[in-house]
UniProtKB/TrEMBL annotation:
GO terms for molecular function: ATP binding; ATP hydrolysis activity. GO terms for cellular component: plasma membrane. It comes from Paracoccus alcaliphilus. Residues 4-236 form the ABC transporter domain. This is Iron complex transport system ATP-binding protein. It is a peripheral membrane protein.
């Protein structure tokens, strides 16, 4: 199978069940898949498990290869992970941080590393930040640097946790357009997004998590329905198309919480 496969994945923290035997539809290369769902649905937890940054039971494979059993350097080459925020307090400058990410596999000759790092910064439109210390960047700038770190090794699988949360509108569009280009180059792209309007416009498919499992999946028009929004997000909403044919999600009101039974 070419792409990402998640089968029967369970994750617990003590007695708390985060994911319970979750299986996803196979995620092919060439598409942007958005992982959606309410808070505490397990989206970030699943993303970290796919990146092999957290323990789980089950099977996660990329192009038929079990990610848990790959050597660390090879996994670092194949998988790029963008967390919600970069660690604070770093004294590195941006270029140094990209070089550190690039050298994680030990495969890039030193003579080529600087050029490769600058090429990624230029691709994302942030080459002017190359000599800036990380701890002097804005939240949005730090997110763009985090994306540069994730893609500098040219990964097959790109995982992004809320990549637009600190970005202004123009940089949101730039980042999401870049994700579409990265997918079109033959990558598997899986991103957690809370903003369903962005997901509707930019995702090829949406996977919705709810109560520890898979609620629904498919193209945005198949998934973003008033019924799903009522059941999963507890809101009354309309899903319509704008004058350009793009889906729009309009929230009318929060639904009253249902009384518990028993």
């Amino acid at each position: 199978m070419n792409g990402l496969s998640v089968r029967d994945v369970s994750i617990r923290y003590g007695r708390r069940v985060i994911l319970d035997g979750l299986s996803l539809p196979d995620l092919p290369a060439g598409q942007v898949t958005v992982l959606a769902g309410p808070n505490a649905a397990g989206k970030s937890t699943l993303l970290r498990a796919v990146a092999q940054l957290g323990s789980y039971h089950g099977g996660i494979t990329l192009d038929g290869r079990d990610l848990a059993h790959l050597p660390g350097a090879e996994r670092a080459r194949l998988v790029g992970f963008m967390p919600q925020t970069l660690p604070s307090g770093s004294s590195l400058i941006v270029l140094q941080s990209i070089l550190a990410a690039l050298r994680a596999t030990g495969e890039t000759p030193a003579a080529e590393a600087d050029a490769a790092a600058m090429a990624v910064l230029d691709r994302l439109g942030i080459a002017d930040l190359a000599l800036r210390p990380l701890d002097q960047l804005s939240g949005g700038q730090r997110q763009m640097v985090s994306l540069a770190q994730a893609i500098v090794r040219d990964p097959r699988l790109l995982l992004l946790d809320e990549p637009t949360s600190a970005l202004d509108l123009a940089r949101q569009v730039r980042l999401l357009a870049e994700l579409r280009r990265l997918a079109a180059e033959g990558r598997v792209v899986l991103a957690v997004l809370h903003d369903l309007a962005l997901a509707a416009q930019w995702a090829d498919r949406i996977v919705v998590l709810h109560q520890g499992g898979l609620h629904s999946h498919g193209q945005p028009a198949q998934v973003l329905t008033p019924a799903m929004l009522a059941e999963v997000y507890q809101v009354e909403a309309r899903v319509e198309r704008c004058s350009r044919g793009n889906l729009t999600v309009m929230i009318d009101r929060e639904l009253a919480a249902q009384p518990s039974v028993g």
